[in-house]
Amino acid sequence: MFASSTATVAGVLGAVLVVLVLVVLARSVRLVQQGTVGVVKRLGRFHRMCEPGPHVIVPFIDAMQKVDVREEPRVGDMQSVITKDNVSVMVNATIFTQVIDVRLALFEVSDFHVAVDQLARTALRAVFGGMTLDEALSERQRINAELQTHMASATEKWGVRLNRIEIVDIVPPQNILNAMALQKEADQQKRAAILQSEGQQQAAVNTAQGDKQASILRAEGAKQAAILAAEADKQSAILRAEGFKEAQIRSGEGQAGYVSALYAAIHQGNPTPEVLAVLQLDALEKIASSDNTKLVVPVETAGLLGAAQALRSVLAAVPEAAGESSS
User: Fold this and answer.
1) Domain 72-172 superfamily per CATH
2) Of 23, 39, 100, 267, which sits with the fewest C-beta atoms within 10 Å of its C-beta?
């Protein structure tokens, strides 16, 4: 009986010892995942840091706390902020943070997640309080930059780096939205009226330019026609002048030939003064018989002409008398 009791106690003690060993082993070996860092505290104080991989610690003396060192996006909830022109809007933002100093993140602030969230809330109120509603709706990049400037210096003390902040939503009150819709509609109508008036103005300008161009082309055509007509008249006058000149030259040449031949014939015939007088009388008769010639004869010359005519009659009668005597 005593032996069986002893065996039972020994079995229980052995089982307890095995469980104790397993517990010790379980508390002694820690596995740190990639993207996290383990912080070992010995008796409540910082002891060392453990990189990703398996690590052995002293059970019941050491404790390990794991910290995620990857970039972490934190989406804030909607909160009410008041703009510079006293308009209450609902805003939320996404904050991208990353732990860069694990020791500071654990021992400089009680909970850096809560601290970053509360800091973002106060920064949102401060930034939107210095802007009007129109600026808040149209300048998100400026809001993001100012939020990062407000929060960066504080988060660095906690070993947390603020990578960027993105405003997700800005929701004005419903009455402001209605007013903005009416303003947008009025702006669209104004723009349409402006575009229509500009189109009419451009059409009028184009029409005027077309009329001007047509007038210019018509004037240039009339000018060119006048120039061509003037050149044609000039060429015609030149041709007529050249023809008249050529006719005068030919007429002069003919007169010169006639005079030369007449002069030669007169000299060859050895004319008497009476014959010359008769020739002069013939020339004078031809001049007087022309339609376009006016001949003024002095009174003293009238007797001379009569004498010349009588002489001519005598000369004409001489051959006749000579013929009768010969017969």
Assistant:
1) Band 7 domain (3.30.479.30)
2) 267
